[in-house]
Structures are given as structure tokens and as C-alpha cells.
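Field reference: sequence -> structure
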Amino acid sequence: GIAGSGRVARAFAPALAPFSASPVLLWGRSPERVRDAAQVAGGGAAEAIEWLTERCDAIVIAVTDDALAAVAAGLAAALAPGRDPFVCHVSGGSGAAVLAPLAARGALTAAVHPAMTFTGDPAQEVERMAGARFAITAPDGEAMAEARTLVGLLGGVAVAIAEDRRALYHAALSHAANHLVTLLGGASHALRVAGDDEPEALLAPLVRAALENSLARGFGALSGPLLRGDGDTIAAHLAALERDCPELLPAYRAMALATLDALDRSVKAPSPGLRRIVAG
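Structure field:
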């Protein structure tokens, strides 16, 4: 069973359907959205939350972070004595502790987060889950084993993350993925101001190479004027941004200072003068 009717629920339903003896049941707060999700995913629409707790041995909670605690409490209240399903949620920032009401009623609980984006293409996302990393957190060995089994059915690779490190784990993912979108959006805007009508085409080979090199070599992939210590070039960047794209200047300074901090920790420390130029 799946609690939720959004993008993640619509991907998990067909991914788990081959391993379910009956059609996957979906439940949510909007009956209309649930019926639509069930039709898209080839599952069934549960009319009440009790359908999940009464009929399902495994339940995936795929709702927004803000709704997670309330849905967990609702499932716990609907769980009959003697029922001990495996219940997991797919939120990145929360561990298994948010499911404590269910654990108190005898359910096995875990957090199982696929480290990927869901854009609304269930068929493609089912394929992408195969081989994806899943961050799993569980309060005991039995629940951890169930979480690993679930990830294995999806074709993924389980990575154990401690309960007290879930926020750090999720911050790292958000910093890498979400801030990358902001970074590229700002670069594209600056290129348009500079006169390029197709900035994405100009950026694509450069950014793809930087990404691949960074994943392969870490901070050793750094290139450019900060690494070389070209203070005049950096000063020209700052002046141009202040003149033509002042809204990008704070982000450029922040990222440049973060890069200098990383250089400080590496074998090549930047000159103090370069830091003064960046800080302004």
C-alpha cells in the first residue's frame, strides 16, 4: 500500500506492483487525486486509510514532509492489534523516529529515501530507481533488513544513514542539486545580459565536463582564476556583476569565498590579497 498520490507515489506503485499479490493500494487526502494516481499507476484506490493497515503487509508513505507526522499518526491509529506491517517513508530529511507511533503499535518502521528527483514520468522513474542509491534508516536490525529488501526489489543500492545524520545527509543533497539549479539559472541570466540568446547551449559542455570531473576527482577538479590567483580577473568579474547583474553579486562572492576556504584546506592556499578582492 502507498499513502500518497503525488509524483513519488505514482512511481513507487508500478515499481512495487510486480512484487504484490494484489494491486497496489493508494490512499490520500484527495479521493479524486487518488483515483487518478491509481489509474495511472495501475493500482487500486483505497477509500479509507484503514484499507492500507488492514490489507497491506508493506506500506510506503509518500507525502510531503509537513504531512508526514500526521499521516504516520493516522496509520498508527488505524492499525489493529496483532497487525505488524513494514511501514517506511521516502522523505530525505527525516529518519525513522517520525514513525514512532507506528513502531509503538508493533509495526516495523524505516526511512527509505531514493537519492533522485521525481519529475512526473513514472515509467522513466521506475527505470531510474534501478541502480539508484537509497538512504535507509531504521531503529533495529529487523527493520533495517526489511528496508534493504525493499530497496533490493526496486533494484537500488541501500546506503545506511544514522538517525542523527539524516538532516546532514539531506542538506548535502539539497546543496548539490537544488543550489546547482540556482547557480546555473544565475549564470544563464548573466550570459543573456552579456548578449547570448542561447546560454544553455554555451554552458552545457562546460558544466557537464565540470560535473564529471568533480565527481571523479573531487575538489582536485577545480580550475579557473581563483585557483590561478588571478586577482585582476576576479576584480573584473565583480565590477561587471555590480554594473550589469547586481542581483548575482552576493552569490558570486559567497561561492568564491567558499572556494577560497576549500583552497585554504588544500595544498595550495590562496594569497590574502585575493581574499580581500573577493570580500570587497
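Note: Residues 14 and 233 are 53 Å apart (CA to CA).
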